[in-house]
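Section 5.1 Outputs to date
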Amino acid sequence: MTDSLLETETPEAGPLRWPYWAFGVLVILFFVIIITWSYSPMLRAQTYQLIFLVGDEEMRGTSLLKLGGKDLEGESDVLVNCCMITIANQDEKLKYSAMRELYLVDEHPAIDIPLLIGELKTSDVVHKSQVIQVIGNQRRRSAVAVPALLRTLSDPIPNIRLHSIVALGKIGPESIPAVPKIVEILNDRSQDWSFRRSAAFALGGIGEDSLSPPALINALKNASPLTTDSIFFSLGLLGPKAASTVPSLINILNNKQSAQREKAVIALGKIGPGARSALPHLREAAKDPYLDRETVLFAIRLIDRKDPRD
């Protein structure tokens, strides 16, 4: 009997059967992962970064595009990292996309300014133009790029020169060495209006107080309407630094044939207490039906306040 039991064949094992509840768990887990990925910008950004690092050219381009999307605006660190890798690796086919995405990122500490300065040596006009714009958008972080931008101010390509002017203005006071050249552009009547207008804006952004104010006032004599607007805007940005222009602004205010009278009022107001000599003229102007009375009175209040230096 014992032998017969030992001789009994063991039945073959059937296919592994998952209990129904296990499939339910897998389905729920799948949806949890999908929902988490959908509502977690950080997880999506990390996923695109991984695809960028291991994917082919098309996948890297798609990843850059996705990382630059509005739904991932808070994950700019990942985007900047991928863009800087693209530039450092001299990826010719993706560099335009990388620079386009970097252009939309303001003052980010991970943007390598020295690396971008090196890119200015390229003969690729489109890429060079993009690099200059990105440098400008980093504002004071790009102070180290001022010498390089001074060189691009003399570039034979007009678009490169124009973007250089704008970038120097955005960098601010660190661009003071460029002021003489920018003043020269502003005063050059042969320049296209877009150059003179950008030069005027740049002088306001840089904030230099010796050459800029008289150059801006002098440029009013032969400026187009669009350039005129930028000149008055920059005088306003200079504020108290533009005090030397008060006599000229008073002359504009008193010239009833001038279309710039109200702009002069606004500029005088922004100069503040340094424009006290204009107060009698502004009080008279407040009676002029052709000027906005509220604008004139507001300028008077700005000028007539106590000077903190007193």
